[in-house]
Amino acid sequence: MKPTLLMARAVFPDVLDYLGQYFDVEANQEDILFSQDALIAKLQGKDALYAVSSQLVPAAVIAACPRLQMIGNMAVGFNNIDLAAATAAGILVSNTPDVLTETTADFAWALLMATARRVTESEHWLRAGKWDRWCYDGFLGADVHGATLGILGMGRIGQSIARRSMGFDMRVIYHNRSRLAESDEQYANNAQLVSKEELLRTADHLVLALPYSPAVHHTIGAAEIAQMQPGATLINIARGGIVDDVALIAALREHRIAAAGLDVYENEPAFHPDFLALSNVVLTPHIASASAPTRRAMAMCAARNLVAAFSGEQPPNLVNPGVTRKVVAHG
Ligand code: 8YV
């Protein structure tokens, strides 16, 4: 008998076909969003869950689903899953690193450029029919070339963002839990480790690329924004909750920093409505990894992790390798 698998959301049909070779799959191609109760009900009798980062899997779900043996998350971030509870329950958890690094770094730059050079703001103005003459001071933005790029969270994605700054003759500073190896710093355009205070004070463009955990909740709040330069831009491609959105809205409204570019929000997709009234913020709906090839690669990566586990192998992207697995042999 094949193991049973619940799909939290819709996925590419060929990925579903692939999974169907190994699992008895309950698909969700209607893309219904499951409440916690619905998820618990659907997971009864299921061995595995194919999740995405918007599908929360808290301890209550894990406790209520004793048969669950693995969660394959189609995301590099896995803060949607209570990892400690999953690990204690013997549930394997995997993510999809690497395959999205370059695409996400590309998008950080798209957001940075659009924010610094006021691309979406000026387009909205043009589309509204307001363009009747050229003006010497129309939509003056910040320079990107020659500026100081600050990166908070210098993992794979942060390093790839930094590397791209070579073409813009930028100086790169970063703050991270630990210093990178010298070769990685060189790769990242000779990035230089600084304190968080120096990063905030010095960066012309500050990009957030750190993973979310409760320890970094509101790591950028009113006090941190107050330390930034008045002409600075803030880019968040990491996770909602790292920035205090209410504090950012107040700062943008009072032009305490020049602008922000956001792909992620607290409580998304129900983000703070006051962002909509601000012209100095570029807003995108959590699409940093959304290139066609990368989303396919992520979907297959999550699927392969699940297949590996139920074929008796170690999933390549296990995030809780210390887990005492309860995956039973399924042939
Ligand atoms: C995903 C992401 O699009 O991988 C992540 O952690 O945030 C995005 O790439 C999204 O989370 C899908 O689950």
Structural write-up:
With 331 residues, the chain is α/β, with parallel strands linked by helices. It has two domains: 4-99 and 292-309, NAD(P)-binding Rossmann-like Domain (Rossmann fold), CATH 3.40.50.720; 101-283, NAD(P)-binding Rossmann-like Domain (Rossmann fold, 3-Layer(aba) Sandwich), CATH 3.40.50. Helix content is 33%, strand content 14%. It has helices at residues 13-20, 36-43, 59-64, 83-88, 101-116, 119-127, 156-164, 182-187, 196-202, 222-227, 245-253, 292-310, and strands at 4-7, 24-26, 48-51, 70-73, 92-94, 148-152, 171-175, 192-193, 205-208, 233-236, 259-262, 281-283. The strands form two sheets. It has a seven-stranded parallel β-sheet, sandwiched between helices. Strands 2-1-3-4-5 form a five-stranded parallel β-sheet. The chain is globular. The structure holds 2-keto-D-gluconic acid. 2-keto-D-gluconic acid is lined by residues 52-53, 74-77, 100, 289. 2-keto-D-gluconic acid (8YV) binds at residues 52-53, 74-77, 100, 289.
Q: Helical proportion? A: 25-40%
Number of strands: 12
Q: List the total number of helices.
A: 12
CATH class of the largest domain: Alpha Beta
Main sheet characteristics: 7 strands, parallel
The CATH topology of the largest domain corresponds to Rossmann fold
Q: CATH architecture of the largest domain, please?
A: 3-Layer(aba) Sandwich
In round numbers, the mean pLDDT is 97
SSE string, helices as H and strands as E: EHEHEHEHEHHEHEHEHEHEHEEH
Q: Considering the protein shown, what is the CATH homologous superfamily of the largest domain?
A: NAD(P)-binding Rossmann-like Domain
What percentage of the residues does DSSP assign to strands (E)?
5-15%
Structural class, from secondary structure content? alpha/beta
Bound molecules: 2-keto-D-gluconic acid
Number of domains: 2
Shape: globular
The span between the termini is 9 Å
Radius of gyration: 22 Å
Spatial order of strands in the largest sheet: 8-7-6-9-10-11-12
Low-confidence runs of at least 5 consecutive residues: none
